[in-house]
Design goal:
Blueprint (H helix, E strand, L loop, with lengths): L29 E3 L5 E3 H9 L18 E2 L1 H13 L17 H12 L5 H17 L1 H8 L3 H11 L4 H11 L6 H8 L2 H10 L5 H17 L3 H8 L4 H9 L6 H15 L5 H6 L2 H8 L5 H15 L2 H9 L3 H8 L5 H17 L1 H9 L2 H10 L4 H13 L6 H6 L12
Antiparallel strand pairs: 1-2, 1-3
GO molecular function: ubiquitin protein ligase activity
Organism: Escallonia herrerae
Keywords: Transferase, Ubl conjugation pathway
Length: about 425
C-alpha cells in the first residue's frame, strides 16, 4: 500500500506509482508487460531470466515477453526528479532502447549479402557496431541471430575488402565466441595468420580489435593443441607487445593487450617467444599504468614468465623488477600480492643478486605483514617460502623477530 512506503530522504516522498513493484525503487526505464503492468526494465528482465513466466503483480501468465517502453511514465518521473532537485534528487537519464530484433536480422542480412553494394554492406555493419557499443542487451540480441557466424564469414571471406573486414572485426571484438566458432578460427593457420597481420595495421583500433578477437578465440578454445598453434603463430607476440608499447594514452590498448598476452602465455612451451619479443620490458615499464584488474593480470603474466629460465633471467636483469614487485605487495589486491610474491620467489630462488635487491627494497617488512594479513593462503605460503629462502640475508635482529612465523614449516605448492 502507498502508505507503507518510506520516504527516500527527509522532505521528499517518491510517489508509489513511480516505484517498481518488484524493487520498490524509483523506476529508471519503465516498461509495460502483456498484462498492462509496468515495471523497471532491469527488474522485470531479472524476474523473467530466473524462470518466472507470470506477471509479478497479477500472477497472470505472460502471453509474451515483449517489453513496451512506457515513455509517458518515464517523462513524468523525469519531471518529478527536476521538480525535487532541491532535495538532492537527480534527473534519471533517458534510456537507450534495446535493439529491435527485426532490425538486427535485417542488418545482418544486408551485411552478409554479397550481391549488395559495398556501401550498403558497410552501412549495415556500422549500424550493428553502434548498436553493439550501446549496451550488453544489444550485444545479446545481436549474438542470438547467428551474428557471430555471419561476421566471421565476412571477416575472412571478404579480406580483400579491408573496410568490411575491419568493421566485422570491430563487432566480433565485443562478442564472446562459442567453442565451435573459436575452433573455426584456431584450426585454420591462414585465419590465424590474417588476424596476426592485423596486429601490425596502421590503425591502432584495428590492431586492438584483432588482439581482442585473438584473446576471445584462445579463451573459447578448450583444446591445448589449438591454443598452442595460436601461441606459436609467427610474430603474434611481437604484435601483442607492440600494442602494450603503444606510445600514446589509450587505455583500451593496455587492457586488451595484457588480456591477450596473458592468454597466450598460458601455453608454457612458447613463453620464451614472449620473452624474446620484449614482454619483460613492456610488463615492467607499463605496470604502473594498469588499472586494478589489469594489474592483476599483468602480475600473473610476470609470474608465469618467471617460471621459465629465459624469463626469470630477463626479469632479474631489469633494474626495476625486484623493487617494483616488493612495493606492490599488499598495495593493489590479494591476487596481485600473491602473484608478486610468487614472482619474487622464482627470482630469488634463481639469483642471489635478486635476494640482495629484495632485502634492500624492504621485502622483510612486506613479507612479515603479509603472513599476518587476511591475504590468500597461497600468498602466505609463498611469503613463508621466500622468508625461509632469504633467512640468511636478514640482519641478525630481523631474523630474531621473524622466528614466530614458522618459516621452516612451509607447505610446498
Amino acid at each position: 500500500m502507498p502508505g507503507s512506503l518510506e520516504p527516500l530522504d527527509v522532505g521528499v516522498q517518491v510517489p508509489y506509482h513511480f516505484r517498481c513493484p518488484i524493487s520498490l525503487e524509483l523506476m529508471r526505464d519503465p516498461v509495460t508487460v502483456s498484462t498492462g503492468q509496468t515495471y523497471d526494465r532491469i527488474s522485470i528482465e531479472s524476474w523473467v531470466a530466473t524462470g518466472n513466466t507470470t506477471c509479478p503483480v497479477t500472477r497472470v501468465p505472460l502471453s509474451d515477453f515483449n517489453l513496451i517502453p512506457n515513455h509517458t511514465l518515464r517523462r513524468l518521473i523525469q519531471e518529478w526528479c527536476v521538480a525535487n532537485r532541491s532535495f538532492g534528487v537527480e534527473r534519471i537519464p533517458t534510456p537507450k532502447q534495446p535493439a529491435d530484433p527485426a532490425v538486427v536480422r535485417s542488418l545482418l542480412n544486408q551485411a552478409s549479402s554479397e550481391t549488395n553494394p559495398l556501401h550498403s554492406r558497410l552501412s549495415a555493419l556500422r549500424r550493428l557496431r553502434g548498436l553493439a557499443r550501446d549496451s550488453d542487451k544489444n550485444r545479446s540480441v545481436i549474438s542470438t541471430h547467428n551474428a557471430r557466424e555471419i561476421l566471421l564469414s565476412v571477416l575472412f571471406s571478404d579480406s580483400n575488402s579491408s573496410e568490411l573486414s575491419h568493421e566485422s572485426l570491430a563487432i566480433l571484438a565485443m562478442l564472446p565466441l562459442s567453442e565451435s566458432e573459436s575452433v573455426f578460427v584456431a584450426s585454420d593457420s591462414d585465419r590465424v595468420a590474417y588476424l596476426v597481420s592485423l596486429l601490425f595495421h596502421s590503425s591502432i583500433d584495428v590492431r586492438v580489435n584483432s588482439a581482442a578477437v585473438i584473446e576471445i578465440v584462445v579463451a573459447g578454445t578448450r583444446s591445448p593443441e589449438s591454443r598452442a598453434e595460436i601461441s606459436n603463430a609467427e610474430e603474434i607476440f611481437d604484435g601483442i607487445i607492440g600494442i602494450l608499447n603503444y606510445p600514446l594514452a589509450y587505455p583500451r590498448a593496455l587492457k586488451v593487450g595484457i588480456k591477450a598476452l596473458f592468454a597466450l602465455c598460458l601455453v608454457k612451451q612458447y613463453r620464451h617467444k614472449a620473452v624474446t619479443a620484449g614482454a619483460v620490458e613492456a610488463l615492467i615499464d607499463r605496470l604502473p599504468d594498469f588499472e586494478k584488474c589489469d594489474a592483476e593480470r599483468a602480475l600473473a603474466t610476470v609470474e608465469l614468465l618467471c617460471r621459465i629460465q629465459s624469463g626469470c633471467a630477463a626479469f632479474a636483469a631489469h633494474a626495476l623488477t625486484v623493487p617494483l614487485l616488493v612495493k606492490i605487495i599488499l598495495k593493489i589486491s590479494d591476487r596481485a600480492t600473491e602473484y608478486a610474491a610468487g614472482a619474487l620467489l622464482s627470482l630469488c630462488s634463481a639469483s642471489e643478486q635478486c635476494q640482495r635487491e629484495a632485502v634492500a627494497a624492504g621485502v622483510l617488512t612486506q613479507l612479515l605483514l603479509l603472513v599476518q594479513s587476511d591475504c590468500t593462503e597461497r600468498a602466505k605460503r609463498k611469503a613463508q617460502m621466500l622468508l625461509k629462502l632469504l633467512r640468511d640475508s636478514w640482519p641478525d635482529e630481523s631474523v630474531g623477530n621473524s622466528g614466530d612465523f614458522a618459516c621452516s614449516d612451509v607447505v610446498p605448492f
